[in-house]
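Example for tutorial group B:
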């Protein structure tokens, strides 16, 4: 597994916004010229966020997700981040177990969101 080191490798992905803002926090795991996993993180100067992580179904349980988490954590720590937050759907027990295995704990919070009108 290698990380996509060159942003040019990622230009074909529908992530142009992320490529303009903290592209070093978008990680892609590649195996034999195939994308097998990815993670998107962010840092606002105080807290880090993991907003998306995915691995191909056929490549789960092989350590790819954990490797992506650890690399994102390393990069966030390098920016001065001291805490990482993430959100999951409460009924998704599989991913809850995955994050717990990676050292994350449930914090009682209420998550709110608002869709903004397109400009």
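The residue assignment follows.
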């Amino acid at each position: 597994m290698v990380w996509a080191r060159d942003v040019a490798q990622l230009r074909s992905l529908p992530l142009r916004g992320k490529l303009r803002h903290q592209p070093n926090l978008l990680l892609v795991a590649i195996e034999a010229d195939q994308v097998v996993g990815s993670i998107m993180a962010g840092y606002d100067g105080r807290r880090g966020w993991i907003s998306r992580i995915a691995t191909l179904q056929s490549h789960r349980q092989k350590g790819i997700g954990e490797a992506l988490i650890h690399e994102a954590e390393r990069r966030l720590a390098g920016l001065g981040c001291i805490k990482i937050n993430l959100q999951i759907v409460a009924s998704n027990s599989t991913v809850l177990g995955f994050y717990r295995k990676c050292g994350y704990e449930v914090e009682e919070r209420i998550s709110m969101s608002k869709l903004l009108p397109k400009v």
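The first strand starts at residue 2 and ends at 3. Compare this with the pattern of hydrophobic and polar residues in the output above.
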